[in-house]
Amino acid sequence: MNDKELLPWLEKATLGDESAFQLVYQATHQDVYRTVAFLVYNKQDIEDIVNEVYMRMWRAFHTYDPNRPFRYWLHGIIVRQVQDWKRKAWRRIRLFERNRQMTCEQFEWTDKAVLQSEMQQELFSLVRQLSYKLRVVVILRYFHDYALEEIADMLQIPVGTAKSRHHLALKELRKRFAMTGGDVYVH
Fold first, then answer.
1. What is the pTM (predicted TM-score) of this model?
2. Residue 102: which H helix or E strand, with range?
3. Exposure pattern of 168-184 as b/e (b: 16+ CB <10 Å)?
């Protein structure tokens, strides 16, 4: 369901219609889950963050501007929720334990359709190795096709910073891909 088809349901959900919210949830859940899964490694955290995204969305419907794309607004909520979650996790767990846990955990994909080919899997594993600040720019740029200006707005950073992170991410991906023996050019 595209943004135009969602608009009447969004308006009803804004007025507190729970069945309209349920329809919006069903239309967006797969996209929200995938986006969070690209940004967070721990499966339990993914589920918790997705739930928090929808709670935040329910509370923030009154801030949605119907003249702007809904999914852009929703992706902004996702990014802010992941950032909030990371800040809270930082406080809850000592840095050493968190890093050890993230490197020891095996990430499992529940949706195999996301990564169909071996090349995509290899590239995704390289993206996962990027720092969060670089990874979020890559995910928003290439998974959701946002312009760098939109990414900067969503992340609340200057456009130059978004461009710099994008450039650094691609440079790092090219370097890592070359180290694996790959010869594909990422542009």
1. 0.64
2. helix 95-104
3. ebbebbbebbeeeebee
Apex 39 CA angle, 187 and 74, nearest 5: 95
DSSP type of residue 156: T
CB 78 within 8 A of CB 52: no
Structure tokens at 115: 């990564």
- CA dihedral (185, 151, 86, 27) in degrees, to 10, reads -100
Residue 43 near residue 130, CB atoms below 8 Å: no
> What's the whole-number mean pLDDT along residues 121-134?
82
Report the alpha-carbon distance of residue 144 to residue 12 in Å, rounded.
26
Q: Which of 46, 77, 83 is nearest to 60 (CA)?
A: 77
- Consecutive H or E run containing 46: helix 43-60
